[in-house]
Amino acid sequence: MGKILAVDDVAETLVILRKTIGILGHEVQTVSDAHKALELIEQQPFDLIFLDIMMPKIDGLELCRRIRMGEKNKNARVVVFSAKSDRELVEIARRFGADYYLGKPATIAKIQEVIERMIGKPASPPPR
Fold this sequence. Notes:
By secondary structure, this protein is of the alpha/beta class. The chain is built from five helices and five strands; from the N terminus they run βαβαβαβαβα. A five-stranded parallel beta sheet has the order 2-1-3-4-5, with helices on both faces. Helix 3 links the parallel strand 3 (48-51) and strand 4. Helix 2 runs parallel beside helix 3.
């Protein structure tokens, strides 16, 4: 089971990610801004971090840069999850340290594919 953080200022997006990631068998935490994300990132390690680009005060690109500069999560996989998806922005996200760029909206199947590509499938529960 992977430990995943989702960061987005849109509540509906966080609900979708929380439900989808939970259904897939991973542990998920969600926060609505980069400041809260930075607090969590300094406290605990994550295997994968989904982050939106367009957020107030600290945007997702800057958050990605700070994740890569920190100690606890510098090796976490980072997926930029954004409605903006032009080629230039995708390249900028990679330069800031993103491992993957996923456009919104995304299907459950696509989210699952990205999670499995980034951190693998969760371990199956032991047989009863």
